[in-house]
Design brief:
elongated; disordered N terminus; Immunoglobulin-like; 20 strands; DUF4138 domain-containing protein
Length: 269
């Protein structure tokens, strides 16, 4: 079970939130005995506080909170605070008898949220997704750079910058008769020129967000990848490596220069 984090941050936020909203104004949610209640969040949950020990909770998924009464407990009356990347929500939880009409799934709706402006967190996952979808829908007329190998062609169609974020519009064409089963899409900052006498320095970086998690493609494949604050010296490149599952194991690497990053089109947030 995933630990629930950021206690001090959310505790202070919860205090200020309570000043604006009274307990009597909170949505009352019934927690059935012998059943679990699931809260579904539109973005990853950062913190949860349960005011009473008779109720236990955990995060089976990053955007799902599961609540349940402890064994042998017959009554509970608690305030549950849920904090996402950009919101805080509170609910009044009371125990009830289990039945056919018992509600076991609750969507955290905008009406129950209070927006948060936490310095350093940046855009939430839903915001990054909406931004990536908008860019994905744009027509790609030409590529900034490309590479070919094993009947494949890799294209960097566009580079965008939005605040602290850099977004890459990637595309792949499969001109072979074999379906391409994707193993990994990796991003490494490496030396531009490599000689036998040089120790190769490679730094793998992880995207902040990837629009699609596609397992395979037969003809073409496009994706939007989001990074936060990419910078590297001019003697290095960003290598984008797409690898295929074994046994075929075809690998194609697309090199992106820092000049291409610096020439990104700006998007106003």
């Amino acid at each position: 079970m995933k630990n629930i984090l950021l206690f001090l941050l959310a505790a202070s936020i919860s205090h200020s939130y309570a000043q604006d909203r009274k307990v009597s104004e909170l949505a009352v949610i019934e927690l059935p005995r012998n059943l679990s209640l699931h809260f579904l969040s539109p973005e990853p949950i950062q913190y949860v506080d349960i005011s009473q020990k008779n109720i236990i909770g955990d995060l089976p998924l990053k955007n799902v909170l599961r609540l349940k009464l402890k064994d042998s407990v017959q009554h509970a009356d608690a305030i549950v605070t849920i904090t996402g990347q950009k919101y805080i929500a509170q609910y009044h939880i009371v125990s009830c008898d289990s039945g056919r009409n018992a509600v076991t799934e609750i969507d955290i709706n905008p009406a129950d949220m209070k927006p948060l402006d936490i310095s350093g967190i940046g855009l939430s996952q839903p915001q990054l997704k909406n931004l990536a979808i908008n860019l994905f829908c744009k027509k790609q007329n030409h590529s900034v750079t490309s590479a070919q190998a094993f009947g494949l062609k890799a294209n960097l169609f566009h580079v965008y910058s939005a605040g602290d974020y850099v977004l890459l519009s990637l595309g792949y064409e499969n001109n072979s008769n074999l379906k391409y089963d994707i193993d990994e899409l990796r991003f490494k900052i490496e030396d531009k020129k490599i000689t036998k006498a040089t120790n190769v320095q490679s730094l793998e970086i992880k995207p902040e967000f990837i629009l699609f998690d596609q397992p395979a493609f037969r003809h073409s494949y496009r994706n939007i990848v989001v990074f936060k604050k990419i910078s590297f010296p001019g003697n290095k490149v960003l290598n984008i490596e797409l690898s295929e599952k074994q046994i075929s194991g075809r690998v194609i690497t697309l090199s992106v220069s820092y000049k291409d990053i610096l020439e990104a089109d700006t998007i106003n947030l």
